[in-house]
């Protein structure tokens, strides 16, 4: 069930000058609604005159023991910059949980690969954590421009093997995620990915060629986030459908991406 | 609660708070957030005779205190509505108004006639003002003559409450309102979106796939309010006011300017519970000023 | 700096950044804040043949991302301008454009003719779009026919650069623009304010003494941009774009949509130095994208 | 010379739930521009989505020794409420100084009365301080609904005799300022006043009857604050003139108030 909730900022961790990690909890100790990997929230940025609509942000992680929702945020424009200024104790209004979620593979011995690019790594953390909890052994392949954009590596390491690529070679292998050697070394049955569209398209093509089951999480311009404005469409094989309700997670078989 | 009751044609609304077409889906998307039975009515998504895929992506641009949309009436057509959606929503304890659009007069009339028999749809809202479709749409709403033609055709085949939704992209909205009235419309609703545009200066391209789109949200409120006031003074049928309502104070402004009922559009995206808050606010205002009947507020602006 | 030069009729502006009439006084009010010689031009306050006291108080209402005004062309008349104000401002190292208004065609023409001989006023902007005066004003700007009549009359008596300022309160702004063009206007400027309204719900009265007033500020930007784009595609004379510009990014949008020059209005109130910031931003943008001449940006929207 | 300046909040004193006193200074220690009693500033409330225009606020006091500008603010709507949340170290953008100022009487032995009502007491503090510095012995007559709305009494006491009225009698004499006994007891030659319009009109009528020289400071809806929008007019004997440049201080002889 979707809710509109006022949550309280428990922590704002300035990861570096471009990224922050917000930790939120309920104001009265009630348990956060169930949220699944791949889902997102819509943040109301109340005090930014230039931010009229809510901002969609993925669930980065749910710390069940602490009753915390984590949001990993890249400073892009006024809305995200304002969020980056939130202080412990501030109240933020959210719609949540929104969207569908990644599909858990049937067999826990499936070799699963979670590919994140840039801030698109955000949903991969929670997905990895949940997969591990269910008995999978997730592999993470994280790509970024340079090491400064590789975030939460320690967190990822808690849930599986972490591979990285950077465009400038400052961390892990140099190049794009689709060139990483682990793709040759291991035999993946499932790929989950989120990141810049060109990266996801490359991943999708790779997965298609190798006949690997592949789900991608799309970003899109959203006005509502819960299926009423019809602004966030992806032109899929089933026609124009809403990313915010029928996605953000899509199996590549549904998309018109493969060439 | 009777003090909030209001009539639009034969249609009796339990209160003047409605939600605007294209911003409220089919109502069911909001059941997690609010109790729909509290609403005066719901205008569901624009419906056309045939299935429409709508416009290409991108369809949205944020603007100062508002947004542009270029959805382009994406919907599965009236028959799908009747067979698949109607059964799911017909038992909501509120009035469901179907917003009807078309590219030709015949389309409008045919679409309307297929809704005529639906027990739980007591009225339709004729959208002669959608700026986001190539043919028809707004064109009908920008001339009194073609507006009259559409309304006349639909009136012939549609027996229940007929609301005509007006375009603000005109020199004189009262002309169009009078044309609708004279052809038998039971009410007019206004405003639809204003035609606007936004540009991505890095790509040097329009943000919307359609170049221009429809502007809505608080930014349009002063214009909408003025048009409601002008129209209220020009026609005898009820006026349903909308455009930028984001608080109960805004709703009171529209009622004072002459709105028998109001619709909330874009702000549902920002606060999906806004309609209920607006309703509460109207009630409190009436208590504060000792207003026994909402009808005593409609158009009571002192000028 | 030559890469910023732009021509409007015979008038050569050192850069496309101008300030809008009614928001910049006579320029001198800004000398504490900025160096006027950096501006492409200044449109001074609306001037009429005779002295006008303007409308009663209140004349202003704040609205979401904008404001309504109902000043009503308060000014001391053209003769006072010529005798008392002109000498004070004529030596500013920028172009002074006088915004001219009237209630009758004869008034417009007479007022314009009394400005014809002023050496340091290289052009006038004909305001056929002011929504805040009872007679004339906007009425001239909402029909192609009466717009043509005014422009024709003024063109006969005014030799220098004639800019016609268009009203956005119309169904089709390109019609009026073409009428102005065909009567010899050197350029069109747009948009003037949109007619709007605001209500004090406690007093149950309009906030403005005139009930309705003119809406301006960032809220109108999407509408203004759309009209500039439409007009640019409809006429051959230069288009001067304005409406809600509050940053250099906004100005670039207007230029890409077809504005040869832009004017900044309401935002001067919030940031009296905004015009200079916009100019700097345009320069940087041109550097960033290697644009050698501002003319290569005008109307270069890729659609 | 008018300036647009970024000042820094040095202190935000929450006087009570309706009023705050902001103290601002320059960010780099440069001396604040000269400001005179009766002048005002225009505050840019940057992070309130509903506050588009600047907000006019009177100069409450200039602490020259500390290089501080004081603003006394009543929480009215979103703009003033946001100002009330400013914290030490916040930067605020201001236009200043704006408007004309009160006229200093010619002779320092003139009996001067400064009447303030509600938040209209704000400019009276600086006026009193300046008059005292010039050798006058100012009398202050401060009116409010109840004692909670009587502000800065200790400050006023530094510069002259303080008389008060409250409507509920909770402080000083009960009633309106125009009923205070000091008006009978002393023979004033000059009255300066700022407050709600009905109060100022009553004061103006009183002064007119008694032939006391009287200046009032008007409030008005302003869009610019420096004479370019022509929104802030008062219909005076000279016609419609701008309160922000030809005022806010007017001699009652110029106004059409007296009946
Ligand atoms: C389902 C979903 C999940 C998301 N999850 C996250 C997340 O976990 N963390 C996170 O940091 N961001 C996430 N985003 C992106 C985030 O919503 C945007 O970065 C944010 O809305 C930008 O708001 P702003 O006000 O800061 O920038 P704006 O002022 O809105 O935009 C500034 C500039 O960036 C461009 N821009 C805006 N949005 C995007 C975008 N999505 N992609 C590329 N360019 C854009 C604009 O066109 C504009 O030029 C997600 C988006 C979606 C749709
Ligand atoms: C020259 C001048 C000097 C001023 N000095 C001070 C000062 O020193 N301290 C101070 O606290 N205030 C002062 N004010 C008043 C102050 O500017 C307003 O209270 C403020 O602009 C309100 O802004 P807001 O966003 O909080 O409220 P808004 O949201 O703008 O208004 C909320 C409600 O209050 C009403 N309102 C707005 N302004 C006023 C007003 N001026 N009078 C009565 N009702 C109003 C509105 O109509 C609205 O209904 C001064 C005003 C002027 C013109
Ligand atoms: C995303 C979106 C889709 C819309 N679709 C329709 C529609 O299908 N039919 C219609 O008559 N109006 C449609 N509208 C217009 C609204 O119903 C309403 O008239 C307008 O948005 C002004 O109200 P607001 O400012 O409260 O949103 C749409 C508006 C938006 C924002
Ligand atoms: C207070 C005020 C007074 C104005 N007076 C005039 C005027 O005298 N003549 C005129 O042509 N336009 C006048 N305008 C309109 C502006 O010049 C401009 O066209 C409009 O405000 C849109 O631009 P903006 O959104 O940048 O303000 C006035 C606008 C405002 C806000
Ligand atoms: S964002 Fe509104 S339908 Fe998806
Ligand atoms: S507030 Fe603009 S002229 Fe006074």
TrEMBL record, chains A, D:
Pfam families given in the database record: DHODB_Fe-S_bind, NAD_binding_1
Protein's GO biological process: pyrimidine nucleotide biosynthetic process
Positions that bind FAD: 55-58, 72-74, 79-80
InterPro entries registered for this protein in UniProt: Cyt_c3_hydrogenase_gsu, Dihydroorotate_DH_ele_sf, Dihydroorotate_DH_Fe-S-bd, FAD-bd_FR_type, FNR_nucleotide-bd, OxRdtase_FAD/NAD-bd, PyrK_electron_transfer, Riboflavin_synthase-like_b-brl
Swiss-Prot/TrEMBL keywords: 2Fe-2S, Electron transport, FAD, Flavoprotein, Iron, Iron-sulfur, Metal-binding, Transport
Swiss-Prot/TrEMBL cofactor(s): [2Fe-2S] cluster; FAD
Residues involved in [2Fe-2S] cluster binding: 224, 229, 232, 244
Ranges of residues in domain FAD-binding FR-type: 2-104
Note accompanying the cofactor annotation: Binds 1 [2Fe-2S] cluster per subunit.
Family (UniProt): Belongs to the PyrK family.
Protein's recorded name: Dihydroorotate dehydrogenase electron transfer subunit
Organism: Dysgonomonas alginatilytica
Automatic annotation (TrEMBL), chains B, C:
Catalytic site: 130
Residue stretches making up the Dihydroorotate dehydrogenase catalytic domain: 4-286
Residue numbers binding substrate: 45, 69-73, 127, 192-193
Catalysed transformations (reactions): (S)-dihydroorotate + A = orotate + AH2
Cofactor(s) this protein cannot do without: FMN
Domain of life: Bacteria
Family: Belongs to the dihydroorotate dehydrogenase family. Type 1 subfamily.
PANTHER family linked: DIHYDROOROTATE DEHYDROGENASE (FUMARATE), DIHYDROOROTATE DEHYDROGENASE (QUINONE), MITOCHONDRIAL-RELATED
Protein's name according to its UniProt entry: Dihydroorotate dehydrogenase
Natural source organism: Dysgonomonas alginatilytica
